[in-house]
Amino acid sequence: MTDIQDLLQRSSFIELSARQRAQSLLDLRYRELVDPFDRITSPWLPKQNIVPQADDGVVVIKGTIQKQPVVVIAIEGAFQGGSLGEVGGAKIAGALELAIEDNRKGIPTAAVLLLETGGVRLQEANLGLAAIAEIHAAIVELRQYQPVIGIVAGSVGCFGGMSIAAGLCSYLILTQEGRLGLNGPQVIEQEAGVQEYDAKDRPFIWSITGGAQRFASGLVDAFVEDDVEQIHQQVQQFLSGGCPAQPRSSRYAWFLEKMAQVDTREQISPSAVQQLYQGEFA
């Protein structure tokens, strides 16, 4: 099969909305929690003349994947850049806490997070930060029972406080188009200058924070095509494999040792990043 034929047979995951992405991963029977018909919107956006969205840009669906109970949480990158405020953050934290309760009751509920987000919503900064802290705590607790799988598929990427959430996941999946980093390119350029980080240099940006680079550096667990079926199969594989023996975030001493080796006087190259993270975890 040629590359063109292969491409034509794919169903793009990135082109789907957050709700469609979540639904594409689940078995046929599922239910959405706090859906748009509940009309729970951000009370803060209208005060700043911003039109709110009925689900606040977060979709939470409870169902199964290959009969494994899961909650799939998807952030809509097209709404306010996927930023999280009070309502959206509470929906994510609440859904994860309900999954924890399920596990305590003997229902082995895992979680899949579809992360297309710039992090906290600036219009709701303190409320968003508090919600993200609750999300972090819930991920750490839930991953003791069942896998928490993060997926970063689209060009919005995953940055800010939610990039820490991604780092806490049991497993991470990225595509070529996905990006993962603590600070977004525009933030780095604003604070450190264009000489340090040119936010308009897309090849450079993706060579540092893109899916291929993050996978080659060992910072994510799977690198897949922008294809619904491939992503679905990878999620199934991680679910069936259970929790990893040691979460990546618990290996912080190894990562700190690596970071101490970086010479910040020079701009690090993509190849140097990959070389930095080679070797076995301590």
UniProtKB/TrEMBL annotation:
Domain of life here? Bacteria
Which PROSITE patterns does the annotation name? COA_CT_NTER
Keyword annotations for this protein, in alphabetical order, are:
Metal-binding, Transferase
InterPro entries named among the record's database cross-references? AcCoA_carboxyl_beta, ClpP/crotonase-like_dom_sf, COA_CT_N, Malonate_beta
UniProt GO MF annotations: acetyl-CoA carboxylase activity; carboxy-lyase activity; metal ion binding; transferase activity
Any Pfam family hit: Carboxyl_trans
Keyword Metal-binding among record annotations: yes
Per the record, the GO terms for biological process are:
carbohydrate metabolic process; fatty acid biosynthetic process; malonyl-CoA biosynthetic process
Give yes or no: UniProt keyword Transferase: yes
Q: Where is the CoA carboxyltransferase N-terminal domain?
A: 1-247
Name the chain's protein.
Malonate decarboxylase, beta subunit
Organism classification, top ranks? Bacteria, Pseudomonadati, Pseudomonadota, Gammaproteobacteria, Moraxellales
